[in-house]
Amino acid sequence: MSNLTKQEVKKSVVYWQTVAKHDYETMVGLFKLKRYSDSLFYGHLVLEKTLKALVVKNTGAHPKPIHNLSVLAQDAGIDLSKEDREFLAEVSKFNIYARYPDYKLSFYKLCNLEYTKPRIEKIKALFKKLW
């Protein structure tokens, strides 16, 4: 990772936070439309971009171009509970399940209201906690 100037850090953090907020609104909208698997995919994006903002803020360097939330949290140097770390590992899978055809249909079938609602609520809570 390369070191950034203070101005570059500020600009990068604002960028990641702005796109995370946009994806948060998309996640909420998709959930309201009952597009549950898509809302969880966007939930992953929300947390990914929030963690990338924290990586930049806490390290002064660009985040790795990865989607693994657990690694990003570690790179950001943030202290999370075991429950939060386990949840990040679960949400990281949504990126794969919603994207690749081998998993997409089974994930779509899994994502009913009962499965999705508590996970969306946890994503919202973690987003607010990390913010």
TrEMBL record:
PROSITE patterns: HEPN. Residues 17-130 form the HEPN domain. It comes from the Bacteria. SUPFAM superfamilies: Nucleotidyltransferase substrate binding subunit/domain. Gene3D superfamilies: Nucleotidyltransferases domain 2 (1.20.120.330). InterPro entries: HEPN_dom. This is HEPN domain protein. It comes from Candidatus Wolfebacteria bacterium GW2011_GWA2_47_9b. The lineage of its organism: Bacteria, Candidatus Wolfeibacteriota.
